[in-house]
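Researcher: I'd like a structural prediction for the single chain below. Treat it as a standalone chain; there are no partners to consider.
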Amino acid sequence: MKRSICWLVLLLALSLSARAEDKTFSPAKPQWLPTLTPQEEAKTFVLPKGYYVELVLSDPIIKEPVVSVFDGNGRMYVAEMRSYMQDIDGTDEHAKVGRVSLHWSSRHNGVFDKHTVFIDHLLLPRMILPVADGLLVNETDSDDIWLYRDTNGDGVADKKELVYAGGPRGGNLEHQPSGLIWDRDNWLYQAVSSYRLRLKGTNVVKEPTPSNSGQWGLTQDDYGKLFFVNAGGELGPVNFQEPIVYGAFKAKDEPSLDFMAVWPLVGLADVEGGRNRFRPENNTLNHFTACCGPDIFRGDRLPLDVRGDLFFGEPVGRLIRRAKIEVQDGVTHLVNPYDHSEFMRSTDPNFRPINMVTAPDGTMYIVDMYRGIIQEGNWVKQGSYLRTIVQKFQLDKNIDHGRIWRLRHKDFKLGPQPHMLDETPAQLVKHLTAANGWWRDTAQKLIVLRNDKSVVPALTKMAISDPNPLARLDALWTLEGLDSVSPDFLRVMLADQNPQVRAAAVRVSESVYENGDRSIVPDVRAMAKDSDPNVAVQVMLTANLLKWTDSKQFAETIVSNNQSAGVQTFGQALLLPPAAAHREFSESERRILARGSVIYNQLCFACHGNNGKGMPLQGGAPGTTMAPPLAGSSTVNGVSEGIINVLLKGLSGPVGGKNYGSQMVSMQNNDNEWVADITSFVRNNFGNSSPFINASEVARVRDATKDHNAPWTLDELHAILPQSLANRSQWKVSASHHSDAARLAIDGRIQTRYDTDASQTPGMWYQIELPQATSVCGLRLDAGDSFNDYPRGYKVQLSDDGKTWGEPVASGHGSGVVTEIFFPATKGKFIRITQTGSVSGLFWSIHELRVFEPGAPVMTKAAPVSTFE
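Model: Treating it as a single chain, here is the predicted structure.
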């Protein structure tokens, strides 16, 4: 009791001091926020009437839990990131001390009294999924998926098999895949990754999908539609309108602007976004910034009015949002049913709900990481706003804890514990009629994995005649997983009285079609006239996915004849023409752009926007964006070293005189090709047109700046970049062809040009005489509106007298409007660019030419020391 009273007094004091001091964020005496026992923490939860939580697991049995899942016998696996942010700098974060623990109830009463370490010595395990004979596991810094099995029944894995070889990956651990669920359509999906996987016996099939924009977790509804959440982009739930395999569709007011506001009880202002993201009057988070771990509750041991609702955590706000899912005329909308409040809140600053899951017992389990820091080290660097708050409240001291809670209601008892791993396929079929969606999902998964077709007659009967539409739908998808759907059977399902079953039948027709039977196509086409907009939309999506030859015209007909909001919204999106490229790219360049596009849509768009103009900051002043625009950016389009440095080291401080809430963090953990792909993509999209960047350029810059260990400011960055010579008016220029126009290349006007007045042939040259010998390191040739007149080949030589020329300092070929040529600094008075390629009918044109000298040396720099140290 004494401790609880002291805790309440401390909270009040913190609230008052926050109001007095945090407006200026001046250093103050550090104030430690003590960790509470689970019993004390439970008293801090605020829930709707009738709801309560009970403890399932706690430290020291588990530490730093991030995911919990259940196998077919109701045993719970917990992924524990035991090396996550163990101090303010994330020291030794990649140590292999993570694990997956296993817990079960020996008395089958919901009390998890038995525990083992199923797998030890893992690198920040992030995805786990039980299958028929083991557990699929993925670790940080890898896309590999491994199957771990316990062959002797002691609760410890003793066999390990590679199921999917995705290979290594780099980057911040917050930007890596998560989730891994078995969807209703029998495919495996992950947040972040733009592909899906399917287990086919001992083989794994991989298919690309549109970018899902998720960050930490995903969930599915009863019909297999996925709901992703985006944490870092402050976007809340994303890409839930239609199954992601068909596209990342948006709709007006899908979550409304007021839905994005959050209502915490804790006011510490420990937000990565700084002042823009908390209410100055009480320091509470004002907007989603860390949405994660979603679950559409599909259990049967909580009130009926929450079944089918979307729940997800906001750990920075110490709360759980409940969202009502409302489908109106084929368009899905999310609504917060609480006015200026939340489903679950806590006054304990260490409450960090990061995952939720519908459990076998019919309730919902909440994974509470229970810790001080919830942001990874890139966002808590020295000199950052967030670091000052972490140090002020000593949030870095609260580590090595973790709790898992069970959400209960006073009117419901716990459901039974399953024994599906011990049951026959025929027994599993019966579970497809269960009221608890977890039982239906697990039964479908196990039947498909066992691939026992003896149950096909029972499944067919259930799909056609069971009175429960969810049972009919689940039986249909289970048959699809067993590859046992015939066109005649599917025609019966297309006539089902329930529109969701009819829509599912349209989706299942894709498998029949891809297996070579096209006889079902006329039946599917006829469903475009279905009275339910969800069915009509599904027909358009299926036609587009299967690339029917007339899919566009077919969609146009549906859109013109059906005025429902869903058909109009998603049909119009399908009919949008692809963005026109500003020039033709080579095959290798297209591959680079494709890889860069995936990176951008997974990671960058959340702050920089789909159009590269910056994501609007919801709740901010008009025109305020989360990050600076990339479209037309001088840093993006300037010398390649600029944008490479930003990616490698990050960027802090004002840009163009404006401060932005989302700091550009270092991406140097990614390899050189990754950096080259994303920088090349950004430099050739959003109206930008600049030379591609290759991995060797990134390697050179990485090596040159290896001792600089802090984000750049723009002033620092510009100082070390190659500098354009400012004495162009004193240059003497000449050329082998059309020499009297040579000065038009350096007149400062992009509208004018020098050109050869003849088709490009080897030996053509353009020469610059500088006022005095100068150390130069590069050239930039801009072809302007004559975008096809770039040099098909070139070499660059320097001379002291214009007569004796040294070996070329650079050679290569142009590939677009701007040709950048950089080389080791070399001193000379004369510079000659010789055209070494040939192309009939095209001149060699230079609208603007610049010569660069080396910038200032890169100085060794660590991050600034915090004022608390």
